[in-house]
Amino acid sequence: MRRLIINADDFGLTRGVNRAIAECHAAGAVTSATLMANSQAFDDAVAIARAHPALRIGCHTMLVDGAPLTPPQDVASLCVRDTGVFREGIGGFAQAALSNRLHAEEITAEAAAQMRKIQAAGIELTHFDTHKHTHMFPRVLRPLLRAARECGVRAVRNPFAPIKALAFATFLKRPRLWKRYTEVRALRSFAGAFQREVEDAGLRTTQGTFGIIATGALDQRLFDAIIGSIPEGTWELVCHPGYNDPDLDAVATRLRASRVEEKKVLTSPESRETLRRNQIQLISFADI
Length: 288
Fold this sequence. Notes:
44% of the residues lie in helices and 13% in strands. It has 12 helices and 7 strands. β1 (2-11), α1 and β2 form a beta-alpha-beta unit. It is globular, with a radius of gyration of 18 Å. The mean pLDDT is 92.
């Protein structure tokens, strides 16, 4: 049996992103979304989640980009000095994580604040993941799992996945994806530790996540290739649908026109046929 969670990240980023996620859910593809607690369109996302109870919601935990919910002086190791905001992008954060300059108790406090804000809005959290997949790093994962336990969140994204032959052949034809593949592959040394930490914490997860390498490049051909390569088991496909509108222009993100393409793919009859033909059972994190 092939079970798949199609999770839309960046819920709450803009009203256009929220609307696109709702449309992809209504089309029968997206089964869950991860909500950014410190986002500009948070209230709009909450309203959409309440109107679509079958769309299961997780916390898209932010430790890079944007500002913390916790007072900046209380999470100083997560912020750029004297700015009150998180580091921009994954590079500087990764260096701080690998050199043990991030304080575990600050990660727990900030993650718990974000999870509790969503729960206080009346939304049940089925799982959590992280913006830019910062929970790949063991020293970041442990305090995040602690926050999840404190907040009663029982599942987490597994950000590691194999690249099967069909999808791999597609990647080889796209040099930009090949470069990203080599970058992600270098982080696979953390995969074993991830599984042990999650199991020890008593949380649940999938066997891995597809789509991370394809972020920003997902079109119909690549979607079909990925779905055709999914092995037996329970997996996740991460996506970023949206509208490329003036609200998105005001947000710092590298994903703009690609969000429109992903929305097109995730609402297409061809995608539904691909899922049916490959006997994919769509589920959410509430089902694992």
